[in-house]
Amino acid sequence: MKKISLLLLMGLVCFAQSPPAGMSQRAAARILEQATWGPTTADIAHLQAVGFDKWFAEQVGATYSPIPSQPLLASDGNTFTDVGPLQVNFFQNSISGQDQLRQRLAFALSEIWVVSNLDLDNASAFPPLLRIFQANALGSYLQLMHDVSISPAMGHYLDMANNDKANAKSGTAANENYARELMQLFTIGLTELNVNGSVVKDSHGNPVPTYTQDTVTNMAKVCTGWTYGLASGATPKGHDPVYFLVPMVAVETLHDTTAKSIFGKTIPAGGTAEADLSDALEILFDQPTIAPFISQQLIQHLVTSNPSANYIDRVASVFISDSKGKRGNLQSVVYAILTDPEARAGDKKDATANFGHLREPVLYIANLLRGLNGQVMDSSQIYNYSISAGQNLFYPASVFSYFPPSNMANGILAPEMDLYTTQTAVTRTALINDAVYANKFDAGTTFSLTPFITAAGSANQTQFFDMVNLLFFHQSLSSTTQAAMETAMAAVTTPAQKAQAGLYIALTSSEFQVIH
After folding, report:
1. What Rg do the C-alpha atoms of the chain give, in angstroms?
2. What pLDDT score was predicted for residue 17?
3. How many domains does the chain have?
4. Domain extent at residue 491
5. Residue by residue, what is the 3-state secondary structure of 181-196?
6. Residue 141: what pLDDT?
7. pLDDT tens-digit readout, 501-510
8. Is 296 within the bounds of a domain?
9. Pair 103, 37: CB distance under 8 Å
10. DSSP line for 323-381
11. Does any domain span residue 359?
12. How far apart are CA 111 and CA 114, in angstroms?
């Protein structure tokens, strides 16, 4: 049985050493909170030692974590629908994968370019799609737009597969589903934005829409003539059967070859399906609103739900043109997001109350796994715990993802709060109880508190509080929460009991729910 484990430092050597000159432990821990699945003592020490730029370059060049293909058919001969093995692999990679930044970005992109197994009901669809997000996470956004557009998973989900040109005799028209969502959700949104994310308004003070129904109609024509790729040895049929392992292919006789007007530019008549799609995507990619629309969402996923207009402006400006004049270079965009003064302001002092974002369940569980020496074996049923916390991995409820980026709470943007209910709040407490007191979620998902127990058993327990504060609170643990931890620890006797009591109070606190 395969066993993936996180080898955190079992002793306390990292806490005994003086940190290298330059980056503080706090700053390193905050960066890792924003850019990975969670800090570990080893990763904090490494980031401090090499500095941000070298660490970032390492992440860009890191070997991709494996995403195993899934069988086409189950043992009974029916379609294999169980994505459980992929969900387990996802959390295994979150623990052991060296490409932490790429993983976080790929997941964020999958929450923008949404495909749900609620509709596909086919596990084989997801590995090829996830590899697209993985490959393009630090690449060109235009290339991502193209690769996802001809992905059979997306083609099936939003009806671009087997979408034929209009037929006047039968009274049919091109399906508009993908054309509409490509613009509304994946690139430019519903209203034009200034570079700083503010809404562009007309002379009457009304928001200016990014596109019209005529734009949708023409984009739908662009998206005709694609069908599923073929399994080896299969014969093309025009409308080929569902097959998710290779990109979609063009059927030129089913493609609309009339001229199309997209955002004031004309795609000439007579083009192929691939040429028309590429031209349309380039036109869409050049729309001014794409930079702030995508930049803001990436900032929300990585750093804070409520970036200032200046923060969005700075990042969107890099999206428009980076230092080498490239547009939509996600490597440069993400670097700008993580190094922005607003992102780094909390490295030296506590962030403001409205800064940061709630840990969505997947991130919450991954952080626990990394911080508490988690092990996820192939037999793990970890997906059940994510589901109970409100997020069923690969099953977003709709094309608007697990939670909409526009969700508000108490008058401010709080996308992940859409998943935070009374029930899921209780579930989070139950997960901490299982991890800390039972040292497992199930037999295949276990935790080890050994370094925490060792520290809790020391004379003054300073190392225990330092460890918890650094790994889970980037050294911003409040005196109130620490006092509650001390009270709980004083009520028990053994080092193990003390470690459990202290961790339970810390990890069920409201402070831990939000990454500041």
Report:
1. 24
2. 35
3. 2
4. 446-515
5. HHHHCCCCCCECECCC
6. 98
7. 999 999 999 9
8. yes
9. yes
10. TTS-SSBHHHHHHHHHHSHHHHGGGTSPPPTT-SEE--HHHHHHHHHHHTT-EEETT--
11. no
12. 6
Other beta carbons less than 10 A from residue 479's beta carbon = 7
The tokens describing 244, both together, are: 């998710």
Burial label for 318, CB within 10 Å (0-12, 13-18, 19+), is: buried
Question: Tens of pLDDT along 47-84?
Answer: 999 999 999 999 999 999 999 999 999 999 999 999 99
pLDDT score recorded for residue 353: 83
Q: How far apart are the first and last CA of the chain?
A: 38
The conformation of residue 410, written as its DSSP 8-state character, comes to T
Give pLDDT, residue 459. 86
CA dihedral (482, 488, 494, 500) positive or negative: negative
Does residue 412 fall inside a structural domain? no
Contact status, residue 332 vs residue 318, Cβ threshold 8 Å: yes
Give 163's strand partners.
Answer: 226
Question: What's the mean pLDDT when you consider all of the chain?
Answer: 94
Separation of alpha carbons 282 and 497, rounded Å: 60
Instruction: Tell me: pLDDT of 20 over 80.
Output: no
Q: Beta strand pairing status for 3-5 and 375-377?
A: antiparallel
pTM for the full predicted model: 0.94
DSSP letter for each residue of 81-111: ---HHHHHHHHHHHHH-S-HHHHHHHHHHHT
